[in-house]
Structures are given as structure tokens and as C-alpha cells.
Amino acid sequence: MRRTVFFVSDGTAITAETFGHSLLTQFQGIKFREIRLPFVDTEAKAHDSVELINKVAAAGEDKPLVFSTIVNHKVGRELTHAHAHIFDMFATFMEPLERVLGVESSPRIGRAHGMGDSDSYEHRMEATNYALTHDDGISKHLSQAEVILVGVSRSGKTPTCLYLALHYGIKAANYPLTEEDLEQPRLPPFLREHKGKLFGLTIDAERLCRIRETRRPGSRYASARQCRYEVDAAESLLRSEGVTLLSSTGSSVEELASRIILNLGLSASHS
Amino acid sequence: MRRTVFFVSDGTAITAETFGHSLLTQFQGIKFREIRLPFVDTEAKAHDSVELINKVAAAGEDKPLVFSTIVNHKVGRELTHAHAHIFDMFATFMEPLERVLGVESSPRIGRAHGMGDSDSYEHRMEATNYALTHDDGISKHLSQAEVILVGVSRSGKTPTCLYLALHYGIKAANYPLTEEDLEQPRLPPFLREHKGKLFGLTIDAERLCRIRETRRPGSRYASARQCRYEVDAAESLLRSEGVTLLSSTGSSVEELASRIILNLGLSASHS
Fold first, then answer.
1. Alpha carbons A18 and B271: distance in angstroms, whole number
2. Model confidence over B102-145: pLDDT tens digits?
3. Which of A151, B43, B78, B203 could form a disulfide with B155 if both were Cys (CB 3.0 to 4.6 A apart)?
4. Total CB pairs under 8 A between chain A and B
């Protein structure tokens, strides 16, 4: 079974995609072909989208699905001419939300993923810059950090820091534990002084081995023995310091970031 | 006016947050205090969440809002005991979606932002690594790039590349045009040979000036004259080469990424 799915929006279509994608992940037996139609912000563009959807509808067996988050009523109305099953998040929830809040909405496009609140946007860009300049132990001056991820090389620290920064404007640094660090009974002082911000990131030794092998095939660095030693030593060092350990083996960067935010009670300035 | 809003989910709560946040951006007059409650995946945790929500409800004037994307029915049902207005994305759309698809959903938590399809997740992590190793002109070997962003220093190339990589698994490189490049009549050959993947990123000279000023205060690099010269020269060089120009002045990284994907017709392996 295969269905074509459109994510249509007058903005980036990120909300439409997130909304539709989340629902579709609950249907494992069906293959979905996903097509994004962002920036559909005029009736003319909506008309073009309808033509595209109808072409797919005419060619295929089953009616396409459309997940829509169009803000503008006129543009949204145009879309109802599509030969498709339409799931419209805004149309569905806006009216009850207006009732609950006791005010009418003031429709404006592109608020959810535009620059919106420009302070919070700047904050995210600054945090991203911070993550890059405090990646991989580049800087040991960590007083500005809100989060410091510590773990062996290739345990997944960098993407997690970037995600925290880009999405939530959280200044996240990371430090890779070296063999020298692992031989010490304690973490280095420049980390110990920020214990409240430390998170240990660990990983299955076998998986680490595979990841390192693609980087430096056949090296001691990528050997099963070395990976096992580093993971064990890092876990025991971090545990002895009372640092919260998270694993990147079964968790995505999104899940790790959510756990970290929850743990620290950080507020997220998500745009 | 101020309302407390909860984003509740048995997963990361990213979908709940995106869903609720998009709707709330349409109400500009109201201040919302946003609280994320991720990983509410047992009835006991749902019960704790209800207690927290009810505490807020008891203390405040207006009933809190709850945006929920809980997959598990039993856990979701627990949440209905909260003294709150509940907007439940899954409960609202799952039943009509099952009808349309003619199959029942197979509820499983954490699919939307977990590792889900591990190939696509690996792909995103690889692309992130690629973006980092092909950032800021570090590498001129760009044959593997799917997107190459070109623009003057601090025009917003790096965060846009990271966003494309982290979210969509797109290998995005970037190259900062130097003064030497700007004096040439053509782009450097290692860029020209990949013209189909090139995007120019431009920015208002005044804004660039402000951004550079925070990096190197009082420098020639940050001067109004220098910023104006570089922006003009870069725009005219890129235009003469027929490269699509995007501006980071009024557009967020999310908007830039969406435009680039739309332009290239790249399919997005969003997790």
C-alpha cells in the first residue's frame, strides 16, 4: 500500500509536516510518499497546489492526503477544491481555541517558523555560534555554558549540542574525554567546577566501534578493545562524579535534548 | 492577559509544542507561559502531570491550556481529569485518518522524534558531520555536497547549513567569499563547477555591520563601509553568475532551508 501525502502551508510547512508526520508514523504498514508545498500564500498558489494534488489524484489509485496549516481563510478555502482528504490543523483547532481564549485570532502567516520574536531568534543564532566555538573541547572557558556534554569521542555530543542551540537557544558546550582524562580518578577541574551543568553521553561499545570504523578504518581508535575500554572507563568516571548519564544508542538527538531540558528545568525559547 | 500552556506528550513533546505553538502565535495580545511535559508515558506519570496542571489551575485565574500528543489511550484518558482545556491532536485526527486509510493505527510512542527509521537518522547524523567538516570553506572538495551556500562572512550560512543537515539529512557546505574572491570577475572554479547546487546568501549591510561589530568591535571588518562594499560586490558577482540569491535579513533559518529544498526539489528525510 502506498499513499501520497501533501504538507501544505503558507509558511515553511514545518508545522504541517510535523503534524502530519507524527500521525502517519502510527501507520506502519503503509508506505507514504511525502510532498511538501511550503509558501502557498496566495489564492493563485493554492490553485496551483490544487492542480498538482488533483494530478496525483487522477494518476493514482487512492485519494491523496493533505495536511494543511494555512492561516489565511481565503487561501485555505481554495484548497478544499482538491480531490483529497484534507486534515486542516488550523481550521480544526482555531475556532475552539478562540472560544476558550475569548478573543479572535489575528491571522498572520509565517509566525511559527519565521523570525517571530527577534530577540529569541538572535538568541538561537548566538547559541549556535557558541556551540560551534565550544565544540569538542575547543574552549575550556565554560562559565557561559548552560549545558556541558561529556563523553568519549563519537558518542554523539556535537549534534546534540547543535540541536539544543539551534532549536532552544541553549548554550551547549561539549568535551571529549581523552585517554589521559580516563586514567585520572577525577574529571578535569575545568569540568568539575561546572558540575551542575554536566551530562555524560554514553554509547554501546559495539555501535561506537562501527561509527569510528567509518572514520578511521582499521585503527586502534576504532578497535573493539579500545572502544570497550573507553566506554567502560568513561561511564565509571562519570558515575563516580555523580554525573547524569544519557545514552545516544537508542535515543535521537531530539530525545536527548528533551531529557536534558527536562533535567535542568531549562526553559526553552523555541521559535 | 496571561495563560499557562502545557505541551504534554509520551515522547519528546516536540510535536505537541510545534502544534500548540503554531496555534498560539495567532494570538498576539496574550502572554503565554509555556511548560513542556515530555515522556509522560505511564498512567502514573499522567497522574503526576494532572496534579501539576491542577495546581496551576487552582492558583491562577484562567484554566490552563493543554496541547497533547499522547499516543497511548489509557495514558491519554488520565489526562482528561485535568482542570484544563485540552487540545488533543492524536485523539482529534487519528479516528478520521484511520477511516480514510482503512486500517487501524498501531500505536507506538516516540516514533515521531525517536530514531524511527534508523537509516534516515544515520543519514541526518552523517549530514551534520558533513556540514561541520565543510563549513566556512574548510574543504574545497564539494562533489558530495547537495547544497553549497555562498556569501560574505557572517551572512548566516553556517546555521542554515546545520539546519538542513540536522533536520533533513541534506549535505550542505558553505563558502565565505573573501575580498580576493570579490575582486574577481567570476566565482572560483571549485564553486563554478557545482553551479546547480549553489545558493547565494545575502544580508542587509546595516545588519551585517551590527553582527560583525559584536564579533570584532571597531574593526575595519565591521565598518559600515566595508560591509556595504562586500554585500554589494557579492550580490553583483552572484547575480552575474546566475546564482539564486536568498536573504537572511527577514528570513529565519527554517524559512531559508524550506526555500532551498523547494528550489532544488530535494526530498526531505525529516524524522
1. 9
2. 999 987 777 778 877 778 899 999 999 999 999 999 999 999 99
3. B203
4. 210
User: C-alpha cell of B202?
Assistant: 545575502
Q: Compute the distance between CA of residue B208 and CA of residue B225 in angstroms, rounded to an integer.
A: 11
Between β-strands A31-37 and A2-8, what pairing exists: parallel, antiparallel or unpaired? parallel
- Helical ranges in A147-250 per DSSP H: 157-168, 179-183, 189-192, 205-215, 224-240
pLDDT tens digit string along A160-181? 999 999 999 999 999 999 999 9
Question: Measured between beta carbons, which residues in chain A are less than 8 angstroms from residue B268?
Answer: 17, 34, 36
pLDDT grade for B266, boundaries at 50, 70 and 90: low
Nearest C-alpha neighbor of A49 from the set A79, A28, A26: A79
Pick from A12, A71, A101: CB nearest B255? A12
* B114:A27 CB<8 A: no
Measured between CA atoms, how close is A219 to chain B, in angstroms?
20
With a CB cutoff of 8 Å and minimum separation 6, the contacts of B142 are B134, B148, B173, B190, B191, B194, B197
Residue B130 and residue B75 in one domain: no
Interface test with B, best of A101, A122, A264 (most B CBs within 10 A): A101
Domain check: are A243 and A155 in the same one? yes
Percentages (nearest 5) of helix, strand, coil residues in chain A: 45, 15, 40
As a residue count, chain A comes to 271
- Residues in CB range of A94: below 8 A, 6 or more apart: A105, B23, B26
Identify whether residues B130 and B242 lie together within a single domain: yes
Report the distance separating Cα A155 and Cα A248, nearest Å. Answer: 7
State the residue range of the domain holding B81. 2-101
B254, A162: Cβ pair inside 8 Å?
no
Is the residue at B36 inside a domain? yes
Task: Establish whether this prediction's ipTM goes over 0.90.
Answer: yes
A191: nearest Cα among A133, A243, A132, A256 = A243
User: Does B89 sit within 8 Å of A23, measured CB to CB?
Assistant: yes
Three-state SS for A67?
strand
Residues 6+ away with beta carbon under 8 Å from A72:
A10, A41, A107, A109
Q: Which residues of A touch B123 (CB under 8 A)?
A: none
Look at chain B and report how many structural domains it folds into.
2
The CATH number of the domain where B90 resides is what? 3.40.50
Best CA proximity match to B207, nearest among B143, B151, B154:
B154
Enter the pTM of the model: 0.92
C-alpha cell at B5: 500552556
